[in-house]
Amino acid sequence: MPSKTYTEEFKRDAVALYENSSGASLTTIATDLGINRATLHNWVKRYGTAARTTIITPDSSSSASVTDTERIRQLERQVKRLQEERDILQKAAKYFAEETNW
């Protein structure tokens, strides 16, 4: 089976998705994108900024309440992450659609 080649843009988008997904592991992101975990790990080492955003989600045992401003920030980060995921999946679909045209 021939090895797959990915564009640098796809690699950078995958790394950005990982870095902006605070609750997701390398394995989860790699599985969602259909790539090997080790491949994503190598991309993170090469293209990563070492800055992984964290989203604070209050649990039931937390006595501190989340202010509206904090909640808006969390939702904005979540929207950004979801938009990145969508963009990556659209690019992947386009890439694989072009690959299957014989």
Automatic annotation (TrEMBL):
Domain of life of the native organism: Bacteria
Which portions of this protein are annotated as coiled-coil regions?
65-99
Alphabetic keyword roster:
Coiled coil
Q: Which InterPro entries does this entry report, sorted A to Z?
A: Homeodomain-like_sf (IPR009057), RD_transcriptional_regulator (IPR051839), Transposase_8 (IPR002514)
UniProt-recorded name of the protein: Transposase
